[in-house]
Sequence to fold (373 residues):
Amino acid sequence: MTERHFIPKPYSANVESGTFSWSSPSNIALVKYWGKKKNQIPENPSISFTLNQCKTITKLSFSKKDLSTALKATDDFSFEVFLDGQKSDAFKPKIQTFFERVEVYLPFLKSYHFKIETENTFPHSSGIASSASGMSALALCLMSVEQRLLGGVEASGIEMTDDYFNKKASFLARLGSGSACRSLEGPLVVWGEHGSVEGSSDLFGVKYPYKVHDHFKNYQDTILLVDKGEKQVSSTVGHNLMHGHPFAQERFKQANKNISEIKSILETGDLDAFVKLVESEALTLHAMMMTSMPYFILMKPNTLQIINKIWAYRNETGSKVCFTLDAGANVHVLYPENEAENVLKFIKNELVAYCQNGHYICDVIGLGAENIL
Ligand code: PMV
Fold:
């Protein structure tokens, strides 16, 4: 598939207005995406667990602009954004950029006025990025509009199957925020072309298509909120610093190799190998940040305290608990379901002290976005 497959045929239905709602979760990468080419094409493939509790719920209402009274009505995008019921202009520039990037694939965007009402299930300033869940929820709502406009006919010569709907929604979400393309399905999604994952693409995320051992069923992710503040360096800036980074090419090679390795780990259920790969990926991501120019550190002292405590606990108990990090100070503690009771005790007794205001979120691997009727 190429980008051209996502340019639709002329719309056949005349739709005045409507409303669609989707909920879409966040995701946590096991093999990380860090570094991109033009148009949000990743430098290396990545794979993530889809989360279940940390979600964005977005309601998109749309109504046709009155072209007779406003001749220039089609010149601009027209939309308003509400976060938790409050009008919010803070997100407007991001959505404006998103609309500009996807307009060629959604040619109806300038014909309607949109009201975007969005809320997150996770606390507002928790340091958990809402871009993956938020952009995927919005992309899905827009796909529902397109589906209605196509009136059941084929889109770009391709039948609007669930598969096409999901792929295009993921494709659009990617143009909003790269990792957002991995939030639509679950429990595992691969984004970025890799020879050992059939159907994988740089353009959209695909549901991991191979056997996964029972050890990974209902895998737990407790997110320790170490620092709820705004990141000092955005992901966009971080990705860009991979251009000309002295270790970039080795890193991209390593990520490709780790995708091959995680495939056999997921199949055999080798949790020791899983722990090594996932922790190495997390530390490599942060090593890239520390060795770019300019360099930066997103981990906080408490991030390291937690990591050391996890290592000590594993040594003492033989537990398979491990950590991963995204582009921030918070720690995702990953562990199999059968360890939930013990690990939660450990978290409460030994790790909560390092969380800001003692806050953490218990999540579990989920199945992706849902249409809310
Ligand atoms: O989707 P972005 O541009 O915010 O980048 C996310 C990058 C990481 O979260 C650090 C890694 C990943 O693969 O999700």
Remarks:
- The two ends are 31 Å apart (CA to CA).
